[in-house]
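pls ignore typos typing on phone
GN1 + seq
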Amino acid sequence: MNSDKEKLTTKFTNITGDLFMDYASIMVHFGITDPIVSAEPFGSGHINDTIHVVTAGSGKEHSYVLQRLNTNVFPDPDILMNNAVQVTQYLAKIVEEKGGDVSRETVHFYPADNGKYYYTDENGKVWRLEDLISHTHSFDLCTSAEMFEQTGVAFGSFLSDLSSFPADRLGEVIKNFHNTRVRFETFTKEVKADKAGRLDSCRKEVEFALARKELAEVLVKELEEEKIPLRVTHNDTKINNILMDETTNQPVCIIDLDTIMPGAAAYDFGDSIRFGASNAEEDERDLSKVFMRMDLFEAFTRGYMRAVGKKLSLAEARSLAEGSIVITFETGIRFLGDYLNGDVYFKVARPQHNLDRARTQLKLVEDMEGKLPQMLEIVEKYWQQAQQQ
Ligand code: GN1
Ligand code: MG
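k done
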């Protein structure tokens, strides 16, 4: 128990100092009374606390994912779970129609004894429970172009499948989540405030970011001028939010439905690229390893366009290339802003973790800026091909 507790507190420096270990008293509110065999921290999310809980009842083990929601980031669990459950149920029907396996290809949330899909404990902490999808794994770094192409198919299909989902049924979980204009304004204020007194340690990065006000405007303007449409988007399409089959490495299920909201296709495409097409992990310290791999960009685009290209206009297709830079930039200023604030939003596992993350993102921005003409060419090529399908 002690070592578990240690692991938890070192891994979750942000909000879990007070995380207690009596998971059985939480599970029971979801109707699970089987004895707990193990409970381990799970995944690499930066916001919520995720625990893999294994129970054993009548000789049979069952794996669950128990999550404690970070209510500083997600203050309204009703909106969040309402969105997630509605979208899951909608996607389940589509999986069924396609003859797929609903239990593996969609997330199964457990209702709590209060009739909601989350339980609030006596300390006001919010928990939710879902089944662990067996024989799957996820990646923090892309291991092959083939796998990334399939990821492109999966996220493209996600957009395509949700194209007729009524967006007005979804609440805005986090206001202005990918409004990069607002993100830039916030960042500017964070620089001025220099709350944690860290500005001196990141002046070069701050200057690089402040010089890119126009970049922050690109997608906002395209949406305002209706050059690109609002759709239902996932808004957090890192490759570790897609579970791959352990044997085939084919995508099985898209997870982390916390930020499903109306958004631009480029948000999701861009987020996949900034994370999955990078040659290094999001927090790599050796910046010489950090650049966008064009082969991976092309592979993802090929898969994505095959799945949804026909539903996109040329302007929207082009926005995917520019949007990849915008979303990478946005993520960079979010990390840098949080570093300046004293690491209050993203969990950190070491000093300067958020600065390291910001540096990788800004390095990617610089690299992608030089590669934009090629990116546009690739996007247009596969968009054209999709029109012939
Ligand atoms: C956060 O929790 P996680 O790791 O899935 C963040 C995303 C960022 C991402 C950066 C609600 O996602 O927006 O892109 O970190 N989620 C929220 O890795 O802010
Ligand atoms: Mg997330």
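Confidence is low (pLDDT under 50) at residues 1-18. DSSP finds twelve helices and ten strands in the chain. more later
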